Amino acid sequence: MSATFTVGLLLLLSLVGYVMGRSRAVTVAGGSIATLHSVPNYYGSYVALWAGLPALVLMLFWMALRGPVMDWLVLDGLSQQQIQGWAQVMLPPNDLQNLLSNIADETAALTETHRQLLLINIKNLAGGQALYVNPAVVESIQPAADHLRNLRNLSDWTLFGAVAAISGGALAFCWARISPTFRARNNVERVVTWLLILCSTIAVFTTIGIVLSLLFESIRFFTKVPLTEFLFGLHWSPQTAIRADQVGSSGSFGAIPLFTGTLLIAFIAMVVAAPVGLMSAIYLSEYAPRRVRSLVKPVLEILAGVPTVVYGFFAILTVAPFIRDLGAVFGIPISSQSALAAGVVMGVMIVPFVSSLADDVINAVPQSLRDGSLGLGATKSETIKQVVIPAALPGIVGALLLAVSRAIGETMIVVMAAGLQAYLTLNPLESVTTVTVQIKSILVGDQEFDSAKTLSVFALGLMLFIVTLVLNVVALRIVQKYREKYD
Amino acid sequence: MTEIAEPMQAAAPVSASFHTGNAAMKRLRSRYAAERRFKIYGILAISFACIMLVILLFTLLKGGVSAFWQTEMRLEVTLDAAIIDPQGTGNPADWDRGALQTLANNAIYKEFPEVEGRVEKRDLRGLISPVAGVFISKILDKDPSLVGQTVQVWIPTSDGVNQILKGGIDRTLPEAQRPISDKQLAWVDKMEASGHLKTAFNSTFFTSSDSNYPELAGLFGAAIGTLLTMSVTLLVSLPVGVAAAVYLEEFAPKNKLTDLIEVNINNLAAVPSIVFGLLGLAVFLNFFGMPRSAPLVGGLVLGLLVMPTIIIASRAALKGVPPSIREAALGMGASRLQAITHHVLPLAMPGIMTGTIIGMAHAVGETAPLLMIGMNAFVTQAPTSLFDSSSVLPVQIFIWADKPERGFVELTSAAILVLLAFLITMNGAAIWLRKKFERRW
Question: What value of ipTM does the predicted structure carry?
Answer without folding.
Answer: 0.87
